Amino acid sequence: MAAAVCFTLVPFKKDDYQDFRALTQSDSVMEMITGGALSEAESQAHFEKILQQNQVAPGFGNFRIIDIDNNAFIGLAKLVMETAADKEVEIGFMLTAPYQGQGIATEATRRLIEVASAQKNLTRVKAILDPQNKASRKILISQGFVSEFVGEIDGLPGEVMSLVL
């Protein structure tokens, strides 16, 4: 299913904290990620981490999903490497409530898999999600991901899914 909303992916910059905060203060967005909304301090700490992740390798990191038609903030999509020498990359997404269910996360995931596939050194894309997050799981399965592990991750229910490149 193609996204009805035309969007672009733009790396998060220091000035984009309020967009990130809009996601992390929402119980409905964060429920399947952290169990609920983040405090201001937790949100700031996570934002500093994503800015650091954006410096690891060109073309990788955390991206703002922006509606091309009205410049509205839609959400976050990530394709993160811990180090530039990594053989695997982590993919993920969070959308603001008004944009959920429109195919945007599927399209963003497809685009980021294309980026990962173009890197000859990468062998695997992984995603970590709540096993109860049926919408995210459906998106990942549609892109060829398979379940590798289901159990506790950092004290929360988790599932690791992966795609071999």
What can you tell me about this protein's structure?
By secondary structure, the chain is of the alpha+beta class. It has a single domain, classed as 3-Layer(aba) Sandwich (Aminopeptidase). It has five helices and seven strands; from the N terminus they run E-H-H-H-E-E-E-H-E-H-E-E. The protein has helices at residues 17-24, 27-30, 40-53, 104-117, 134-142; strands at 7-11, 61-67, 73-80, 88-95, 124-129, 146-153, 156-164. A seven-stranded mixed sheet has the order 1-2-3-4-5-7-6, sandwiched between helices. Strand 4, helix 4 (104-117) and strand 5 form a beta-alpha-beta unit. The model has no long low-confidence stretch (mean pLDDT 95).
Question: Biggest sheet, open or closed, and with what strands and sense?
Answer: 7 strands, mixed
Q: Would you report the number of β strands?
A: 7
Strand order of the largest sheet: 1-2-3-4-5-7-6
Radius of gyration: 15 Å
Q: Provide the β-strand percentage band.
A: 25-35%
CATH topology: Aminopeptidase
> On the 0-100 scale, what is the average pLDDT?
95
Estimate percent helicity. Answer: 25-40%
At the first level of CATH, the class is Alpha Beta
Number of helices: 5
